């Protein structure tokens, strides 16, 4: 029986993918290399340094670790600048209806994102009011498809992994959910690939998937 529902953030609860793409594209332009939408899509759900490797695929030169770290830091600074304009209006469609209703039905909810910017995003959007736990890049060290962030989130809300469902739009995220022994609920790109145990076209479908628990109104 599912008792906890864990959510990825970027592209699932908040429409921040456009800011990631813009920040990476600006960095690529400074380096004089192309960066396409397809590459941007491949950056979903993976670590900042792994994303940088995708950005650098078109480079004709190699970079040392220190140079790469400086690039990743520069991208993140630009990304955080872009996030300053984030508001509750940037929440994905259905979030303000679905999350409070799932809590009313008795489910424990948590964020499970490897982003180190989760705190800023939660503050700007008000998303934290519906969450019972937040597992992000400040408390995990391994990015998806490693299951660490999902397992950490499950512990935070006191629910066993096999009683959790994980909602993610990235293929790496659904793989992480399965490696954690959880039900994988795909949405967006991962749903288009049929990667999940359930493949949704909208967050509202979660209310069909997870009915009120026994004893809940």
The count of strands amounts to 6
**Succession of helices and strands:** EHHHHHEHEHEHEHEH
Q: From the alpha carbons, calculate the radius of gyration and give it in angstroms.
A: 17 Å
Q: Flag low-confidence runs.
A: none
Major beta-sheet overview: 6 strands, parallel
Distance between the termini: 18 Å
Beta-strand share of residues: 5-15%
Number of helices: 10
Structural class: alpha/beta
Average pLDDT, rounded to a whole number, is 94
Q: In which order are the strands of the major sheet placed?
A: 3-2-1-4-5-6
Describe the protein's topology.
Blueprint: E1 4-7, H1 17-31, H2 37-42, H3 48-55, H4 65-83, H5 95-104, E2 108-112, H6 118-125, E3 133-135, H7 148-156, E4 164-168, H8 171-179, E5 183-187, H9 189-192, E6 198-200, H10 206-209
Parallel strand pairs: 1-2, 1-4, 2-3, 4-5, 5-6
Helix pairs in contact: 1-4
